[in-house]
TrEMBL record:
Region (Disordered): 317-357
Name of this protein: DnaD and phage-associated region
Composition bias type Basic and acidic residues, residue spans: 317-331, 338-357
Signal peptide span: none
The organism of origin for this protein: Halanaerobium saccharolyticum subsp. saccharolyticum DSM 6643
Pfam families (UniProt xref): DnaB_2 (PF07261)
Family: Belongs to the DnaB/DnaD family.
Domain DnaB/C C-terminal: 163-226
């Protein structure tokens, strides 16, 4: 016997309303709204209530933004997100005030079904198995990546907030990056002794994501460059004598400045500069300012780009220093000459003094010969 359900309609329309939108409770309970963020839900409802014939949409962006309490910039971004899912067929153009598009109601339903599939996959099976399958796969869907990411959380913490968070990552980062993220966190988890999920694993994952946002790393190519810079920075730190460090220390920022930018040095040149500075400063560790002033800056200014050029420059510097007279010898010679001149002056002075004394004696020597006259 067919069941008959009592249906209650709640009408929030006004007399001048031209379109009505009905959402069933069962559709919402099955997670229809869970697939959209709060602002996406607002925009979707706005679009559904502003349909023309054949599901055509024509809205004025400033009016829509004002009605929804959004900035036009954010409204454009949300429309772009909906376009990526296939719910609408185009994004907004820069400077466009009127937005025309077509709404794909079928895509809305399919997205709901995909969301249900995501829920089933992410809660079924051991997290380690879900991650292993993703890491070993040649290609992966967003659904599989999302399931692997949320598997780092205990089942009772896999709430709507976390799902929305993961969905935003899927929009902001390439799938290849997120797959690499799963591999790294899974590796860290195994080193910690956790087989499925462990307290702190999701926090470690989120710290990596936050760093990507901070450094604006949104593509796999940028991630590879960042990883290379991090590895080379660690090599410079070890050559300088740093064994335990944090990536945010001033010293490591200095090393990174040598390896990046318009006048970036190769890792080999930077290492050679550090080793030469350490060799010369045998009485202790050279300061980074000493390394920069005597090696890094001259290398950049002279355009030295290879180890061979660097060695030739060092040899030239050594040859120039060896051809210059030793300052200590110069000082000794000057002191000797001064001493000789002083001795000569003293002797001349003594001689003049003796002559003056003799002159004085003969000057005062007087005999009165008249006294002795007969």
């Amino acid at each position: 016997m067919k069941k008959i359900y009592y249906k209650k309609n709640i009408d929030l329309s006004e007399p001048e309303s031209r379109q009505l939108l009905t959402f069933g409770d069962s559709l919402i309970e099955k997670g229809f709204l869970r697939q959209f963020s709060g602002d996406e839900t607002k925009v979707l409802i706005y679009l559904l209530t502003h349909l023309k014939e054949d599901n055509e949409i024509e809205i004025e962006l400033p009016l829509a933004a004002g009605a929804l309490g959004l900035k036009i910039k954010n409204l454009r971004k949300i429309i772009s997100n909906l376009a990526v899912t296939g719910i609408i067929n185009r994004e907004t153009a820069e400077g466009e005030s009127f937005f025309n598009s077509y709404l794909n109601l079928k895509a809305v339903i399919e997205k709901k079904e995909e969301s249900e599939q995501f829920t089933n996959v992410s809660t079924a099976g051991a997290g380690s198995e879900v991650r292993k399958q993703l890491i070993n796969s040649n290609s992966a869907s967003e659904n599989e990546i999302a399931a692997a990411l949320i598997s780092f959380l205990p089942p009772n913490n896999r709430n709507i907030h976390r799902r929305e968070e993961i969905k935003s990552w899927l929009n902001d980062f390439e799938n290849k990056m997120l797959k690499e993220l799963v591999r790294r966190v899974d590796k860290w988890l195994k080193r910690q002794g956790g087989s499925d999920h462990l307290q702190g694993a999701y926090a470690y994952l989120k710290a990596i994501i936050d760093n990507w946002y901070q450094e604006e790393i949104t593509t796999y190519e940028k991630l590879q460059k960042q990883d290379k810079l991090h590895r080379e920075t660690k090599e410079l730190a070890r050559a300088y004598g740093i064994r335990s460090f944090s990536s945010n220390t001033a010293q490591l920022k200095t090393f990174q400045s040598w390896l990046s930018g318009e006048q970036a040095l190769s890792k080999e040149l930077a290492l050679a500069a550090i080793r030469e500075a350490v060799r010369r400063k045998r009485d202790g560790q050279p300061s980074l300012k000493y390394v920069e002033d005597n090696f890094i800056n001259p290398i950049k200014e002279l355009g030295i780009s290879s180890l061979a050029d660097f060695r030739r420059w060092l040899q030239k510097e050594m040859d120039q220093k060896s051809s210059e007279p030793d300052q200590r010898d110069q000082n000794t010679s000057k002191n000797k000459n001064k001493k000789e001149d002083k001795n000569k002056a003293d002797k001349s002075k003594t001689k003049n003094s003796d002559e003056n004394k003799d002159n004085y004696k003969w000057k005062d020597f007087f005999i009165d010969f008249d006294k002795y006259k007969e």
